[in-house]
Amino acid sequence: MPSSIELIRRELQHRFHRSATRRMFGFRLLRVERGRVWLEMEVARRFLQVHGRVHGGILATLADTATALAAYTVVPPRARLATLEMKINFLEGVERGAVTARARVLRAGRTVVVCECDLRDGADRLAAKAMVTLAVSHPPG
Fold first, then answer.
1. What are phi and psi of 113, to 5 degrees?
2. Residue 104: strand, helix, or coil
3. What does the pLDDT look like over 68-88, one tens digit per residue?
4. 3-26 confidence digits (pLDDT tens)
5. Region label for 52, one of left (φ > 0), alpha (ψ between -120 and 50) or beta (otherwise)
6. Burial class, 113, CB count within 10 angstroms (exposed 0-12 / middle 13-18 / buried 19+)
7. CA gap 13, 72 in Å, rounded
């Protein structure tokens, strides 16, 4: 019988595989632990703004996706999540290579999960820091 973290990992991979966002941006799931997720995105030319750096909206999407996946590891299996609030600080421009999102659950309640996410470039510089609050809903039954 698989361990609980293995069951969580399988469910998360299933959800992630079905994600249109994953397909659009090429996000890769690197690692899953209870309350933590690592995602990676390769910088593509289409992600760059006019000054040749990854657009902030793309980085915010990576952080939002990573924190939601981290939150899914601590909520009941049929729970649904929706982002209520996000704050992100952009600290370094990213021009090429990979960006890694390291998301972590800070607090998980019955109706709200609060997460943080560090976005690091290929040189391991902190490119952005995000705080994300997610609403948890529980389908009837």
1. -125, 130
2. strand
3. 999 999 998 889 999 999 999
4. 677 888 888 888 888 888 889 999
5. left
6. buried
7. 11
Q: At what angle do helices 56-72 and 4-18 cross, to 10 degrees?
A: 140
The single-letter DSSP state of residue 132 is E
Tokens of 85: 């609030």
For the chain, where are the alpha helices, taking DSSP H only?
Answer: 4-18, 20-25, 56-72
Question: Could you count the other beta carbons within 10 Å of the beta carbon of residue 28?
Answer: 14
User: In the numeric block, which tokens belong to residue 79?
Assistant: 């729970």
Q: In terms of pTM, does the model score above 0.85?
A: yes
φ/ψ of residue 124, rounded to 5:
65, 25
- Interatomic CA distance for residues 113 and 64, integer angstroms: 13
46, amino acid identity: R
